[in-house]
Amino acid sequence: MFQEELVIETRGRGSVEITAQVAAAVDASDIDDGLCHLFIRHTSASLMVNENADPAVLTDLETFMRD
Questions:
Q1: Using an 8 Å Cβ cutoff, are 47 and 40 in contact?
Q2: Which pTM was predicted?
C-alpha cells in the first residue's frame, strides 16, 4: 500500500488538470500492479475522467456544468 496527499491549488470555479501529479504519485509508489484510488476532501469538488482526445470535450463539460 502507498498513500500520498496531493494539494491542488485552484482559482475558484473551473477545471484543473491533475494527470501529471497523479502519474507522479503512482510512479513514486513503485507498485507494478494495483488500483489508484483518489479521494477528494472538498465538498464542492468533483473528479472528471475523460480521454482528452478532443479539446472541445472540456469546453462542452464546463458549459454543461455551468448551465
A1: yes
A2: 0.78
Q: Grid coordinates in use for 5?
A: 496527499
Cβ neighbours for 47, distance < 8 A, ≥ 6 positions apart: 38, 40
Which pLDDT band, with edges at 50, 70 and 90, does 20 fall under?
A: very high
Spatial separation of the C-alpha atoms in residues 50 and 21, rounded to whole Å? 16
Q: DSSP assignment of 3-67, as one string?
A: ---------SSS----HHHHHHHHHHHT-SS---------TT--------SSTHHHHHHHHHHH-
